[in-house]
């Protein structure tokens, strides 16, 4: 015991001296000086890439719109941005600054960089996108920079762009999108078919059986969902997902299929059949009148009158179709559900009709509403038109006025 105490008394002053020296070395600069050095380092890194940076961008805190590609070139306090939705370059200023931590800010208006944040009459918050980012760090070799949207909270990666032409890269991504696009998908995991699979609105969802059913106990099921962004070789997930103990960051498109690196996940196009659409749906849309999100229910069934259409809505906008069902035609090849308009369906204070209108004013127009159909999912996102639910005079054919205008319409089957 005395020997141990003696050794400690000898070593302790050395430890204290060592700590004081180390502390002096670590804190030889003030916090302000250290922050300035950090900001300078990242500004230099941003401007060091001659070909720019590829940023896979996710607006909205739940990534509900999926991911989109930006390519950004930084030079002398300016940033030139390309966005795959516009393919036009826009230049503005940027700064790397301090605001409760290091921040990358696109501080002057840029039509591309503010695309998802710019408000409109219908969406006062825009698409809830970011134009200011907390800088989280970088990879060891400096080829990646990690940032976090200050509004959405989404963590994004900026990768040094290895191509030469941003527009050519976007075109390659679009080729993958067009090759992958389908109304229905079939997926296998370890050569076993999954219970469901969807690639819709740039969100990948699927369910698998983890434990088979018995006579007394139902099967156990695991559900997965992750947003993704198209690349020039396939899709990359917003964040890695773990399936059966294996972590996946994305899928590669090859030989007509999306395939994981280990070959265990394989997704191919399936064939949509009319029964895939039958069921009760919950829908969300944006009200043209208020700009707010609305929701409701509808029911789609097989038609009782094939001459009018092969399917019919028996409930629309939370309202039973008591006057007449709303008839529709499903086209499996095109993956569409077409509703001729107007179609009266409910008699209340007025005779309500399902109709089509312009997206700018809601004025009724003739013509069909064409839904994009996927398994248990319908969407109508034509930027020029909206869906109307309003009063209709069947005698004169006059449209008496809209009571609700819907656009950005998406319906998903209940329980899916």
In short:
This protein is mainly beta. Helix content is 14%, strand content 47%. Strands 4-3-2-1-9-8-7-6-5 form a nine-stranded antiparallel β-sheet.
Structure description:
It is built from three helices and 31 strands. With 416 residues, it is mainly β. The strands form three sheets. It has a nine-stranded antiparallel beta sheet with strand order 4-3-2-1-9-8-7-6-5. The protein has a nine-stranded antiparallel beta sheet with strand order 11-10-18-17-16-15-14-13-12. The protein has an eight-stranded antiparallel β-barrel with strand order 19-20-21-23-24-28-29-31. The longest helix is centred in the N-terminal third of the chain and has 25 residues, at 2-26.
By oligomeric state, this entry counts as single chain
In percent terms, what proportion of residues is strand? over 45%
Outline: globular
The count of β-strands is: 31
Radius of gyration, in angstroms, nearest whole number: 28 Å
Question: What is the helical fraction, as a range of percent?
Answer: 10-25%
């Amino acid at each position: 015991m005395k020997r141990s105490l003696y050794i400690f008394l000898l070593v302790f002053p050395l430890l204290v001296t060592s700590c004081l020296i180390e502390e002096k070395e670590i804190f030889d600069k003030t916090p302000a000086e250290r922050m300035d050095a950090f900001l300078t380092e990242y500004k230099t890194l941003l401007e060091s890439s001659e070909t720019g940076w590829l940023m896979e961008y996710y607006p909205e805190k739940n990534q509900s719109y999926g991911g989109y590609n930006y390519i950004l070139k930084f030079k002398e306090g300016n940033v030139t941005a390309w966005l795959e939705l516009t393919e036009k370059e826009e230049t503005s200023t940027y700064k790397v600054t301090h605001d409760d931590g290091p921040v990358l800010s696109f501080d002057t208006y840029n039509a591309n960089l503010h695309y998802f944040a710019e408000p409109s009459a219908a969406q006062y918050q825009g698409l809830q996108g970011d134009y200011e980012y907390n800088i989280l760090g970088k990879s060891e070799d400096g080829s990646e920079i990690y940032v976090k949207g200050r509004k959405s909270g989404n963590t994004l990666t900026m990768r040094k762009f290895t191509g030469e032409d941003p527009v050519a890269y976007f075109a390659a991504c679009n080729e993958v999108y067009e090759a992958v696009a389908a109304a229905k998908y079939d997926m296998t995991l370890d050569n076993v078919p999954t219970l469901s699979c969807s690639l819709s609105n740039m969100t990948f969802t699927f369910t698998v059986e983890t434990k088979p059913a018995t006579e007394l106990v139902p099967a156990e099921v695991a559900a997965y969902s992750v947003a993704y962004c198209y690349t020039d070789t396939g899709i990359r997930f917003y964040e890695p997902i773990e399936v059966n103990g294996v972590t996946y960051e994305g899928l590669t498109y090859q030989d007509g299929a999306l395939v994981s690196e280990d070959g265990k996940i394989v997704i191919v196009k399936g064939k949509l059949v009319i029964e895939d659409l039958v069921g009760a749906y919950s829908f969300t849309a944006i009200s043209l009148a208020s700009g707010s999100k609305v929701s409701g229910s509808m029911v789609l069934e097989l038609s009782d009158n094939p001459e009018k259409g092969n399917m019919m809505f028996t409930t629309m906008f939370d309202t039973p179709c008591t006057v007449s069902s709303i008839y529709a035609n499903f086209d499996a090849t095109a993956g569409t559900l077409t509703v001729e308009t107007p179609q009266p369906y409910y008699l209340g204070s007025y005779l309500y009709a399902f109709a089509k209108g312009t997206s700018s004013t809601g004025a009724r127009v003739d013509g069909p509403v064409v839904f994009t159909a996927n398994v248990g999912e319908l969407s109508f996102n034509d930027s020029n038109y909206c869906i109307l639910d309003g009063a209709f005079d069947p005698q004169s054919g006059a449209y008496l006025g809209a009571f609700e205008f819907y656009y950005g319409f998406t319906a998903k089957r209940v329980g899916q």
